[in-house]
């Protein structure tokens, strides 16, 4: 059904879950996987902090490289993963990557910001959904109570 999957990865908990789901789906479908990480533009961020634009750009590039290394490391050994680093507006850059490749599925993690924050900041998922013809699989964040339960289970040591 799917032969070329694009997954957006930024290291957040939901993007880690999306990455895992994309890898599992790729294995089941014998599909190719491309991981894209987008480092945001420097100009808006530089205005908020007393740092050099060049220094901030270098840090963002290093951040993106680290995220792509994480994604490669998390890949099953029998799966070849291609990685792409982009710079700019996250939603626009994901859509540009979709348009430049021949992807038949995009996998994204939901940030779970909540309605007000999403209204103010916008949603990458909405942007990708409305600006792309490729089906989008959105991995939602676990409910807070469920996330707490999962964290407790993960840290419980059996005596």
Q: How is this structure best summarized?
A:
With 159 residues, the chain is α/β, with parallel strands linked by helices. It has helices at residues 13-29, 42-46, 53-74, 90-100, 115-121, 124-131, 144-155; strands at residues 4-8, 32-39, 81-87, 105-109, 136-139.
Spatial gap, N to C terminus = 45 Å
Q: Helical percent range? A: 40-55%
Strand content: 15-25%
- Count of individual helical segments: 7
The CATH level-2 architecture is identified as 3-Layer(aba) Sandwich
**In CATH, what is the class?**
Alpha Beta
CATH topology category name: Rossmann fold
Contiguous runs where pLDDT drops below 50 for at least 5 residues = 113-121, 154-159
Explain this structure.
52% of the residues lie in helices and 18% in strands. The chain is an alpha/beta fold and 159 residues long. It has a single domain (4-155), classed as HUPs (Rossmann fold), CATH 3.40.50.620. Strands 3-2-1-4-5 form a 5-stranded parallel sheet, with helices on both faces. α4 packs parallel to α6. The chain is globular, with a radius of gyration of 17 Å.
Architecture blueprint of SSEs:
Layout: E1 4-8, H1 13-29, E2 32-39, H2 42-46, H3 53-74, E3 81-87, H4 90-100, E4 105-109, H5 115-121, H6 124-131, E5 136-139, H7 144-155
Helix pairs in contact: 4-6
List descriptors.
single chain, 18% strand, 5 strands, alpha/beta, 5-stranded parallel sheet, 159 residues, 7 helices, Rossmann fold, disordered C terminus
